[in-house]
Write a structure and sequence with these properties.
mainly alpha; Nitrile Hydratase, Chain A; 2 domains; two-stranded parallel ribbon; 11 helices
Length: about 210
C-alpha cells in the first residue's frame, strides 16, 4: 500500500498550483519564506542528488563497495550516512551495455528521498507514470535518450516499502578521476534512468580545496 498522495494532473498544472499555494500560505503568514527556502535548499543539496552522486561515484571507484551496493543497497548506502524515510529499503540497479534500468512509481510518487532529494514534478505526473510502463523507450526519447534497439529496458515500480536507485555506467574518458570529481558527472536523471551521466567535457571544474 502506498503512503503518498496520488497526483493526476499534468506537469504545468501541478507547477502552477504549487506556486499558487505557496504564495497564499506566505501571504497569510502561515509560512516563513526564508524557512521554506532553507527547507528546499536542504533537500536539493544536503538531502538530495548530491548524496546519490556520492554513492554512485564510490561504486565506480571501489569494486568492493560496488559489490556490496548491488548486494545490499540499504546497508551500503546507509554506511555513507544516507538513510531515513524513503530509504529504509533500497535496491540498486546496475546499467550495463546491454541493460538499461528505468524507475517509476505507477500509483503515486514513491521516491528515495535520502539519495535523490525531492522528486521532480514530472516523476509525479500521470503521463510519466503510465507511459513509462507501456512505452519506456518512448519516454526515454522524450528525455533525449535514444538507446540502441539491442539494449533491453527494464522498468521497476517503486512502492512505499521498496525504492530503487539506478547505478549508471561510468563515462568513458574518466580514467584516473577520483570519486569527488566523478560525482560531478552524476545527474539525478541518470539515477532514475531517464538520462545518462554527463560526459567529462560537460562537467563543472572541481572546486578548489
Amino acid at each position: 500500500m502506498h503512503d503518498h498522495d496520488h497526483p493526476g494532473t499534468i506537469l504545468p498544472d501541478i507547477d502552477l498550483r504549487v506556486r499558487a499555494l505557496e504564495s497564499l500560505l506566505v501571504e497569510k503568514g502561515y509560512v516563513d519564506p526564508a524557512a521554506l527556502d532553507r527547507l528546499v535548499e536542504t533537500y536539493e543539496t544536503r538531502i538530495g542528488p548530491r548524496n546519490g552522486a556520492r554513492v554512485v561515484s564510490r561504486a565506480w571507484t571501489d569494486p568492493q563497495y560496488r559489490a556490496w551496493l548491488l548486494d545490499d543497497g540499504t546497508a551500503a548506502i546507509a554506511s555513507l550516512g544516507y538513510s531515513g524515510r524513503g530509504g529504509e529499503h533500497m535496491v540498486v540497479l546496475e546499467n550495463t551495455p546491454s541493460v538499461h534500468n528505468l524507475v517509476v512509481c505507477t500509483l503515486c510518487s514513491c521516491y528515495p528521498w535520502p539519495v535523490l532529494g525531492l522528486p521532480p514534478v514530472w516523476y509525479k505526473s500521470a503521463p510519466y507514470r503510465s507511459k513509462a510502463v507501456v512505452d519506456p523507450r518512448g519516454v526515454l526519447a522524450e528525455f533525449g535518450l535514444a538507446l540502441s534497439p539491442e539494449v533491453e529496458i527494464r522498468v521497476w515500480d517503486s512502492n512505499s516499502e521498496l525504492r530503487y536507485l539506478v547505478l549508471p555506467m561510468r563515462p568513458e574518458g574518466t580514467e584516473g578521476w577520483d570519486a569527488d570529481r566523478l560525482a560531478t558527472l552524476v545527474t539525478r536523471d541518470s539515477m532514475i534512468g531517464v538520462g545518462l551521466p554527463l560526459s567529462p567535457g560537460a562537467a563543472a571544474p572541481p572546486e578548489a580545496a
